[in-house]
Design brief:
elongated; D-Maltodextrin-Binding Protein, domain 2; alpha+beta; 22% helix
């Protein structure tokens, strides 16, 4: 979201924005936070969630690795591989540039995991986030950044 922030803040100059990152569940009331982006299925029914994106996960390997150990035909073939690492879509490692450059190659495309939802969560008591969803610039910019339809 960072590349979109200068234009977003210029459009909403009175908005105060504090951004942090972590993998713990945030207590919005106790910590005085208006909203949070959460990756994964929503668990807390006390908060309102608006989906802003879907993250796609891929399995990839370097060309050198595939030349040495062969391209796996299916997930069961991974047992025979020397190294299999997992990068969480929540903590992130973005491979688009490496895939475009050819330094990584997607494998097992037909066995991709299901996409993971990204939602903006807030408490019902936060008036500026109430319906309709376009009343909230944070929701709009999150959808724009993630290129998610409204």
């Amino acid at each position: 979201m960072l590349p979109a922030l200068p234009a977003f803040l210029a459009e909403y100059p009175d908005l105060q924005l504090q951004i942090s990152e972590g993998d713990r569940l945030v207590d919005l009331v106790r910590e005085g936070i208006d909203c949070v982006l959460r990756v994964g299925d929503l668990q807390d029914g006390a908060m309102i969630g608006r989906r802003v994106a879907m993250l796609t996960e891929v399995t990839c390997a370097s060309p050198a690795y595939l030349a040495r150990y062969r391209v796996p035909a299916g997930p069961a073939d991974l047992d025979a591989h020397v190294a299999v690492a997992f990068m969480s879509s929540a903590t992130g490692y973005h491979v688009a540039a490496e895939l475009t450059a050819g330094t990584l190659i997607e494998i097992l495309a037909q066995h991709r995991p299901s996409s993971t939802p990204v939602s903006l969560l807030y408490l019902p008591s936060i008036r500026r986030f109430r319906s309709p969803p376009h009343d909230c610039p944070v929701i709009d910019v999150a959808r724009l950044v993630f290129r998610f339809p409204t």
